[in-house]
Amino acid sequence: MTLAIKLKKGQKISIGDKVEFRKSYKGKTGSEYARVTKVINKDVYYITGFFEPKRNYAKVFPDSRKIKTDVIVRRNDFKGAVYGDKVVCEIINVDDIEDGIVDLEARVVEVLGKAGDTLVEVKSVMKKYSFEDFFSEDILSETTDIFREYKSKSEKGVIDGYRRDLRTMTLFTIDPKDAKDFDDAVSIEKSGDGYKLGVHIADVSHFVKDGCAVDIEAFKRATSVYFPNKVVPMLPEILSNDLCSLKPNVDRLAFSVFIELGKKFEVKNYELTKSIINSKRRFTYEEVQEIINKKKGDYSKDILLMYRVSQSLTKKRITEGSIDFDSREVEFEIDKKGFIKSIGIKDRLDSMRMIEEFMLLANRCVTEFVNKLSLKIRAELPFVYRVHDLPDAEKLQNLSEFIRQFGHKANLKDKNEIKRLLEEIKGEPEEFIINDLLIRSMAKAVYTDENIGHYGLGFENYTHFTSPIRRYPDLIVHRLLFEYTNFLNGRTQKIDLHPRYRDSLEEMCKHCSVQEQNAVAAEREVTKILQIEFIKDKLGDDFDGIISGIGKFGLFIELIDFKIEGMVRYRDIEDDYYEYDERRHCAVGKRKGREFHAGSKIKVKLISADTSSRKIDFVIIK
């Protein structure tokens, strides 16, 4: 049952909050509504942690960043947990979390297994961020009904009247080799003295209707989560990997954007339309890269034209203000049990950059479409923007000082200086470390209903439209765009939006931003866990590393071959007593004056790696 909410004066709640309420009735109408009596933040209601029993009680040491003190569990609430277990707990006196003095009490609701076990630790991270890798029977049943209804219509050849038939057009998908959810396809053709680029996105909104059970669950998740050894999807797999996925040689529904480019690669015009497509080929990035390199292969004419166009678009975008960050991604080879067989660094191929460029352009065009329509009808239309605020000046000043230890000078408050620095460090050992530091010093990109532009990309108008299978904001954008195109094309007399897109869009955007940040944090934690699992049987082995940072207690070391970071503690450096020189951002030996600077290559030996604490320690090899 869904009830309207009525709040007391001054009372505030956010989407995703857990609430206690009582049913009330409106006087004359007699209709029910929910009067909220208590708001409980779901993020701190449950915790995971290390279980340590005492005589008549136990302590749980939380993994949570919000709750930093141990939590008390009474013996009756152990639920079979024993020393060293990783457990999920429900906080009983949740109102005392902010107190800081009153002991927090909890009850164990689930025993995950032994702390330190890799699969248990991965499960713990999922619980910590409330990511579930299963769907309820109700949702799966509804998904089956959606599939059956579509299959029945498609067998009868039923095509929506507003949908353009593009099944004879040459278009194809280009994705990672392990991808199963293909949400974008591309096409290209010469058009006069320019080009016509087609970006075709899975039409998830056709299948997932506003307010259905699948939609409610998709909004709650807000994003798919991509761990090295598994995917936690936003949508059930029958949708994400089958019905919505733009698989080759089968008819699929799409939302297409055709972009006309002039001979100088400026956008001359664009058109949005719902469509039905039939992908001619499923390419991997590696396959397309080989075609780019060898200049031959399936659909090589189209691919080589796309590549030339994308290179010019990239050059134009950077000239006009985009910052081209280039961080390294770790690539894992996973065995059947979910453990890492090997770790490498993923190459950022030209084929990847090509697809990224086309998606950026499509996202810009659909946003400009909405803004121009707003001006035309003289009314601000609700929309979801992907924005990136100006960076904090103080953070950039501190980073300007910090990068001096790498031997580089730049006033990072000047965007052109950032771009110059990125060019200067290309090919240097510290290239990706500085890239990562710059990215982390920037404001986080978020979703919002107010357009403030995107600093990093240098765009005035930007959204996320191209991945509705794995991002809920894109699904909202598709729904809004369909209403707006219907109105513009005269298929409807007025814009008829679901009330929540007028009344609650700001809160929906905040929820999606939080879930995205949780997904990033969870992915990083799981990556670290699996890296430790991979390296911990290599105790005593030597590695080539680079000093990625310097702190009060030691040197941060990143292994060059594996992008695994650990620490050399000053106490473990035998030739001298070292201290951190904060002014000069280096470590200095008190007696001999030896200095360690960030960016320096160094040989280290692995002495410890602990999955539970996520800590890796090295010593320097002389």
* Rg, Å, rounded: 27 Å
Q: What count of domains describes the coordinates?
A: 5
The number of strands is 29
Helical content band:
25-40%
Low-confidence stretches: none
Structural class estimated from helices and strands: alpha+beta
How many helices? 14
Mass-distribution shape: globular
Query: How much is the average pLDDT?
Result: 90
Strand order of the largest sheet: 4-5-6-8-7
Q: How is the main sheet built?
A: 5 strands, mixed, barrel
Q: Report how far the terminal alpha carbons are from each other.
A: 69 Å
Give the amount of beta strand, in percent: 25-35%
Quick summary:
The protein has 622 residues and is of the alpha+beta class.
Would you give an account of this structure?
The chain is an alpha+beta fold and 622 residues long. The chain has 5 domains: 4-40, no CATH class; 46-115, OB fold (Dihydrolipoamide Acetyltransferase, E2P) (Beta Barrel), CATH 2.40.50.640; 137-389 and 444-529, no CATH class; 393-441, no CATH class; 539-620, OB fold (Dihydrolipoamide Acetyltransferase, E2P), CATH 2.40.50.140. Helices cover 31% and strands 28% of the residues. Strand 5 (57-62) and strand 6 form a beta hairpin. The chain contains 14 helices and 29 strands. The longest helix is centred in the last third of the chain and has 31 residues, at 505-535. A 5-stranded mixed beta barrel has the order 4-5-6-8-7. The model has no long low-confidence stretch (mean pLDDT 90). Helix 1 runs antiparallel to helix 14 (505-535) and helix 7 (300-319) crosses helix 8 (350-377).
